[in-house]
Structures
1.
Amino acid sequence: MSGAHQDEDFKGRFDPRVWRRLVSYLGEHRGAVTRLAIGGAVIAAIEAALPLFVAAMIDEAHANGLTSRLSMIVTFYLSTFIAFAACVWMFIRAAGEISTGVGYRMRQDCFRKLQELSFSFFDTRPVGWLTSRLTSDCGRISGTLPWVILDLFWGSLLLAATATAMLIIHVRLSLIVFSIVPVLIAASWGFQRLMLHSGRQARRTNSAMTASYNEALQGARTTKTLVREERNLGEFQRLSTEMRGWMMKNSIQSSLYFPVIMTIGAAGAGLALWKGGGDYLSGEGLTLGRLVAFLQFAGVFAQPIQELAQRFADILNASTAAERVVSLLDTTSEIRDHPTVLAAMAATHAPDRAFDGGSPRIREVRFEGVSFWYKPGVPVLTDFNLHVREGQTVALVGATGGGKSTIVSLMARFYEPREGSILLDGIDYRERSLHWLQSNLGVIQQVPHLFSGSIRENIRYGRLDASDAEIETAAKRVNAHDFILSMEKGYDFDVGECGERLSTGQRQLVALARAVLRNPQIFIMDEATSSVDTATERLIQGGIEEVLRDRIAFVIAHRLSTIRRADVILVIDGGRIVEQGTHRELLAKRSRYFELYTNQYAVEREAELFGAPTA
Amino acid sequence: MRRTISTIWTLLEGHRGRYAMALLALLASAAVLYAVPMISQAVIDGVLLIDEERSTPIAKWIVATLGGTDHLRERLWLPGIVLLAVTAVAGLLTHLRTRFATGAAEAVALSLRDRMYDRIQRLPCATLDLKPSGDLLQRCTSDVETFRTFLAGQAIEIGRAVVMLIAPLPIMFWIDWRMTIASIVVLPFIVTFSLLYFRRLRPLFAAKEEAEGKMTTTITENLTGIRVVRAFARQEFEREKFAGTSGAFAKADLVLYARFATFWATSDLLCFLQSALAVGAGLWLLAGDRISVGTFFFYISVIGLFIWPVRMMGRILADLGKALAAIDRIRDILNTPDERFDDATEPFVPQAEGGVSIEFENVSFAFGAGATVLDGVSFSIPRGSTLGIVGPSGAGKSTIVHLLLRLYDYGQGSIRIDGRELRTIPRAEMRRIVGTVMQQPFLYSKTLKENILISAAGHLNDEDAMRNAATVASVHASIEEFPQKYETLIGERGITLSGGQRQRVAIARSLVQAPSILVLDDALSAVDTHTEAEILRSFRSRESQHTTIIVAHRLSTLMHADRIIVIEHGRVSQEGRHEELIARSGTYRTLWEIQTSLDDPDEPAEALATEVH
């Protein structure tokens, strides 16, 4: 449902390049593919041979009664059953291996790619949309692949075997039956095209319908206040009626397809009965058993063709998923290490150097003439300059959309400057390793993101080899220890998906402990706008001071206490620094900062007055 | 169970005829399908072999009907044509069966979808608060789909298996009872086996779904937290985590595949056992000259016809529980009372132009058995005047608005509109006279024009009204800047509006409604002060047109109101005009002092500066 607007337009073309890429995933599973192929082939052979057995048995029993030859045929007949069942068992397991293995590998590759792609990629794609690339798209491809392989072997072999058997029994008769093949193929082609179309339309209408249900739920109050129920229902009914139309169309098409194929097949069998019966009666070397066998062959002849057509339709159905997955895999990240940096990382360095050969310490950060835009023609930051030294805290204040978040995103190299450069100790950060820089960052978001798991695991995210004692020390330093102990199971408390079982304030404390454990050289914080109850608020304040001490820190600040203690305050508006200085200096100017400050002062006083959370 | 069946019966109302037709087609197609092997048998025995002695009466009848042995020997194309015709008719009947069954199922699904949609949008807020929207959405989509599949497919498949099995039995017994028994004796085992096997697989299916859920969570968490992952350079750690959860999912899936392999191999063996029994018995009888070749052929073909439906039946029966559970969950929603059950029926007409009078007298309210939200609130608003409401969040300001709109029913006290008790005014009529703008207004995924004109019944082309309203709401200029202007699509498939733009569009929407009461529930919070002042100015010039309630946080928003009340802890703590309230000490004056300190640069700044250190 999410991102229904994107890529949802099925192309449904068969693009061999896309599929070749996917087939390369089969490399790891050569054994399973072989077993699948053998299984399909043996089953086709048995299916082709079965009528021959029945024919032989009928002829023998009819002519000679219960002979030892008959019992031999019967024994053979029975043993093919066991071989058949064994093959079924084998190919389903092989299909399982391929389906789960390919699905797994494909998901790993997609996931790996997502870890590398730059943020500009994520800006335009909703999380739900990306998630379904890894879940349903990969699932659809890996679920389709083994059965396509199986039926390719089974179908073509059965077709070949049946045709051969028929040719052996009677050449002229076979050729008569073969004449139905083009008709079968034409009919399958036509029907599959129709069914593909109606199936897609039905799916599309269905997702529109789901979106509409969702809107009805999300907008329930508005609908009530506007007394829109009748007209909403009317609009929904248009969709649901359309849905019914496509569903009817699709199932009517498929309910016509199978009978049509059967009837065409029966036409072949009828032809065989007519001509073959004549040959038998005129005694032209066709025994009754062989005639019966031939009739059976002619009867099943249509089946593999129909089955192959079905698989081809499956491929077309999965082709949109395939295109999307392959295009994700083929996306290259805009932000990645420069080749010279990669070369430096491969070399060995002195122990006092970072792993990319540069200095391990960051003593100063310089923004030089930095300009940035997300969309060409809409500059967010223009010719921005800034100099920060070790131990300094920079507070960024100003209205939303002024460019504050962009500055910290550039600092974290989530994006790179379009113009100008950012220098770490005089060296452009694009000449350093991305991984090295980001290993030295601590980031706290406005609404801190936690992962499902225990509080302990979430704090340990800051440093994976931290001991339990170190985790507790970090928690104590940011005043989180007491609240954690008050939780059920303490540090082992399960925070739930994205930390939903903790309050915002508690999440902030955990995120602070995580950052302290990290001990980063550069600290970036987007301070929460919504305050929490006064007691927690005070705890958080203490925690933040602890985190900021002795590092380079960039804070998108909202709280007065944070702003006041900053070494440099930048008032950002329209992508530029409009005022810069310390709290005292700026206050004395009585200008933009003064306005912002007094405004915030009022907000915080009110919060105190009411003693409750305010926006 | 009985309740479930009666629910299905009720839901089928109006479509039972079509469903009966489907059953009829099912029966007919079974009959025709079985005719195919009978014709083959007749041709083998009566025309090719001329086995008069062992041929069956039916075969003889078929041969006689087609013109007798000699006639047919000359014209072997005739049985061929008949065979073709019979297959075509069987196909046609199968098609009709699907057509009727699908027709019935889709019609039921259509009416269910519409009813569910209508029900959820009419559920009282009190009910909606209790039901997570994800759950409701699932009932509307996947549960209805499960039920539809049941009607269109599973129910018909079960019927088909039963018919295909039972229909030929009399004839089979009549032709040869020994062959008949040999042809069906394994079937009960096949059904039982598949039923039990799939029942036992249920926990594995559940385990797979759970593993899939965990995998999805890992992806979602990683993507929503991608900044944290990058900032902590934890890509490798995340990859390992994902390898763990997606590996667990692959494993759970593989286990199911292995079980499927065992199931299909075993059930194949059982089916083969069935055929082998019939072939063995047939050969024995054939060798003893007790049955004809045609009869033998007939039984082999018949087994081929019913073994597949019977084999699938076990699986379908095992899945039946899901469909029944879905029906129960659907019924649950359809039986939840909605707002159409309204005691108030008598129409309401405002006494005069220019708004209505509103009186709250000692009104109390609590959500369910929860804490009291409003505790004896009283105030009155004369026709055409403006009431301002201020107070901390959670104090009950919005609840007053909700009660007025009859979104919730008030417990104690009395609310009177133009003197009439609110409870006796039909919900729809009350809401039609109130124009409401909430703090986070909901806009529909339609064009701006459609959104603004949404409550203007039948005037969807009233562009003047639209432009006027948008101008009063100070949003006309912003809209004109969009490339497609008023035709711009908003929402998931269109552009995203800022909070302030949404609020202003919602204000325009409520103005088009020409309401008797206009309610702004913190509706200007995301609009900058300058624009806010502009909007309020144009509102004041319309003052005589409606009664107005403004809930706000910024006192500048409501200082011009005719009357202001301060709500704290569910009670009216202060009441009066702005000038009166700032003259008295209390919450309002304190708020006023805090909020105006920024307008007065000198004095508070000193206070601030000293407070800083």
2.
Amino acid sequence: MLAVSAEQPFDDPNWWYELKWDGYRALIHQTQRLRIFSRRGQNLLAWFPELAALSRYISAPSVLDAEIVAWHEGGPSFEALAARRGPYLAVVFDCLYTGDGWHLREPLRARRARLAKLVAPGGPVVVADGVAGPGRQLLAAAAERHLEGVMAKHLDGLYWPGRRVRTWQKFVLQQVQWMTAAAADPRPGGGWMWTLVENPDGSGPVVARLTAPVDWRPQAALIGMRHRLTPPLAVEVGYRRRTAAGRLRHASIRQWRDVHDNARPAAP
Amino acid sequence: MRSLYKGIIGFGLVAIPVQVYKAMDEERVELHWVHTVCGHRIHYRKFCSQCHRDVTAEELAKSAPLPDGRYVVVPAEEPAPAASDHTITILSFHSLTEIDPVFYRQAYWLEPGAGGRKAYRLLTGTMRAAGKVALGEMTLRSRRRMTVLRPYEETALMLHQMYFPESLRRDGAQFGQGPAAISDREREMAETLIAQMSEPFVPQNYPNAARQRLLETIAGLTPSAVRADAGKPVAEVIDLMEQLKASIAGSPRRGAS
């Protein structure tokens, strides 16, 4: 089940508002054994074997909807998740199945009540907390903390697997877009700065200059030198808004890959 | 080596001051239980599952269960008079072979205290020459224990805490009883085999391989050692959600509505 983008953030006592976590959407199947699937059905346990610990903290049988998040310096970091740097945790926000059967035809408030009973404290799993009513205030608070946004869900809404529905709406603080790193500059204190443009061939006006991820290394011959990246790198960037001149504000690198080399696997 | 306590060997009219040290290192490598989510050490709480709360020391007592399911609360033991504490009183002397190894518990070194070396050496040397060991009674932390004192190599005295005789489960002594027809040939074969496999006992030939492996594992993991404060993401997520909710609850708009 997917959310539409809200035209305007709104307040409504019949809606439940929780933080939008910047991670990988996941379905956690805690049945005979633990399985965790990505939106495209890939096995996330193969990506994040540490999450096997979840099985000790989630009651069986159950199927939960969740976001897998990497935690870095006090906040969620999509960049750390994409580079597979833990620690990871699961923020669970919906309960689709329990020993009582499927609950897709129950309203969200009933599914949330079930969810609270399934998760034991102490493990790398948290039940998403939220508020009913003041959605815009939660969005303002999320903006202050540089979080991705807020999810608004109708408390009487049912669960529609695989569908994008209006009973789930997202208030997005962060825009996400694939861009291109055209050049790299050594930074005085070590590390690199990337120059980002919008065109995949590395041409066009500069939209941002960002610190390159720590796990990126240039070719050995180019250490310490400013150089063009040939071929350019595909870089997914999150940002809050654009200036009038088109520059990105509050931008951060979410993930990157060398399109030709394919050394780094695509996201699940 | 840290001394456990200072005491006195009472031998007739002579009192020999000694310090007591543990003789054996723990075989176990020190390991702590940690909560893998946050990396912190766990601790144990005294919790009453009936009352659903932690209990204080004053509320606690030891009880002895009875076969019918009832129990009696045992009064706390009176501390022994200070004078008898830390005194090892020698009761009698015996041959070492008379005392079955099953009764031995912990081993301790005894070091002569100030002004005690001469009496200590006299006792050690005389026991060694006579081939005897001393049976003693010791009060340690207000508990009476039986001990054996014996010379170790040339000059040292070792003390063994002993099990009380009632502790031995006698039933096992019956094992192996009943008829067994053993021929002379079989007996000779067994005797030959034992003679062939006999050799001097060298303790160094039998090291603790499992402990060695664990220590090597720990040494290999040292580069990835973490501090307990490093990862507490779940606590931080919960904090973050609480803070955001609190900032909504405390905002003036909410208060006005």
